[in-house]
UniProtKB/TrEMBL annotation:
Domain of life of the native organism: Bacteria
Plastocyanin-like domain segment(s): 67-144, 151-193, 364-486
Claim: Iron is one of the keywords in the record: no
Alphabetized InterPro entries for the sequence: Cu-oxidase-like_N, Cu-oxidase_C, Cu-oxidase_fam, Cu_oxidase_Cu_BS, Cupredoxin
One Pfam family of this chain: Cu-oxidase_2
Chain positions covered by the region annotation Disordered: 340-366
Keywords: Metal-binding, Oxidoreductase
Keyword Transferase: no
Protein name, entry field: Multicopper oxidase family protein
Family: Belongs to the multicopper oxidase family.
Amino acid sequence: MRRRAVLGAGAAALGAAGIGWSLLTPKLPGKLLHSRAPLPRPFEARLAIPAVLAGEEIVQREADLAILPGLTTRAWTYNGSFPGPTVITRSGRAATVTHRNQLPEPVVVHLHGGHTPAGSDGYPIDQIMPLPPAAAHHYMATMAGDTTVGARTYRYPMQQRAATLWYHDHRMGFTGPAVYRGLAGFHLVRDDEEDALPLPRGERELPLMITDRAFEEDGSFRYPLGDADYMNGVLGDVILVNGRPWPVHEVDPARYRLRLLNASNARRYRLQFDPQPPGGDAFVQIGSDGGLLTRPIGHDTLELAPAERFDVVVDFARWKPGTKVRLIDRDGGDVMRFDVTGPKTDDPSRVPPVLSTSAEPLPPPKRSRTFRFGQGRDGTWRINDLTYQPGRALARPRLGEVEHWRFVTDFHHPIHLHLNHFQVVSRNANEIGEYDKGWKDTVDLRASEAVEIAVRFTDYTGTFMLHCHNLEHEDMAMMADFVVEP
Ligand code: C2O
Ligand code: CU
């Protein structure tokens, strides 16, 4: 049986009919890719916290990173690190970030969770061409977007509340391999409402980007570009937290704020501590993709689909000093470890019973629409039975109006909306799930589920995206445009 090599080939290259993939669709998203390099031992690397971006410029370039012992990993990076530098901006204060492309291929930058005008939203064909111009010319021929050569300045008005956002590559058909090679970083928005709360801060506020990767023998990232066996998603056999394999972090017996981001291409996690603290509810969730919840929610387990963020407070004083607390994935083993050290220290932090007042339900919708996420007979991933085509809008909501969007799946798909955060209003015609609370921009759907969201389209007209955030599905055309009309 010959399979067409389509993964990462770009939606535009798809077309001819292949095999009836749906017959072969497994129950879990993704397929495990084994490393050829010897695997590192867990809990030998130290957790690293990405540097905060100084200034407003990021250079995208190759860099050799020390991830595995004794080997280097040639990565695509923002400013030479993976994750890239953390961008910190202030709600209500406009910011710009200029990206220079010194990589050998075109790039696109999307601020995930950003409430951003269309021109700076990282539309997949609005590419930054590589230098020198000769290289750019090679790619220009195939592109019709709003492209630039060498650099581009993205403008972020930041008319949005405090939240954990992230930025990553979004190039048409090649987002999976580009993110896998290292193009992802945090972008934190802060505001007065959040600053006024006595939450853990400083060294006790940790952004944690969780990814899975496989490695070649020489230490480079192993990605099955062009291998249709991995069209359900690529799963690596090494878990990296902030780019380090199964790292360890020493913590005081005190409260910590963990801004958890699943930046994996396809892997979803069911995170839990081992041992669990007496009394359970180890994770006190304070925020979701779109910022603070109204009230904190305790969880024993946290389920994170690709691109989702959970902002949680964990009180390490609940374990005895000296305890090595493993953060595990109930489906896949170790993630990282927190070693609780030292005697009890001063901890001025608290989690107040009311965190925010800005989560009132949206008014009734002006209209409802249904989007079916499924696989075509040719193996492409589709929305409403269409593969992605730039410029073809599947919806034209009006500025300022509330709509209900119903997502229906065949298979597991984490579904992401650009421009506005939304509220989940029902799951399978029932109550929303434990992880659906607050303002979201990505909602996790399992096989054969239906989720309804409420969203209001605000501030910016133009073309935005709706897509699956399993990056292999996204690259295989599970995207759609929607146009916000005046
Ligand atoms: Cu995080 Cu359109 O993507
Ligand atoms: Cu999907």
